[in-house]
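Quick check before the chapter quiz. The format below is the same one you will see on the exam, so make sure you can read both the input and the output lines.
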Amino acid sequence: MIREARLDDLRRLEACAREFYAQSRFLKGFDPERFEAFWTSLLEQEMGVIFLLVSDRDGEIEGTLGGVIYPEPYSGARIATEFFWFVHQARRGEGLKLLRAFESWARAKGCAQIRMAHLVDLMPAKLETVYRRFGYTPAEVQYLKELES
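Here is the expected output.
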């Protein structure tokens, strides 16, 4: 089952976040309190959404996709951007339901574009295939440099 997260679901997402962070060398320092505060603000202001893939058997969260809406700085067009998308290995095929839900939400909110990302160390070729199949085209590549304190 796919449903929108409620505020009381945010704490339950910690296990998914920790698993996601453990799989990438680029993600560091997950702070559950900061996550909860950030997403509480976005959800309360209706600027963000988190979709959950929930087990019909036991109600456990098996996948999630979160994103935000913001005005594009120079045109003002409404943009929906994915912030995270994670599905437990055993349910990966069903994660596409999360993407469809996010797309429907963005359309209903009057967005002109949806922007999706992927970490280059987590299934980049497979995700590129999925994105292209859903009509997405590559638009930008980001580069990261770790700074020493």
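If your answer matched, good. Residues 2-133 form a domain with the Aminopeptidase fold (CATH 3.40.630.30).
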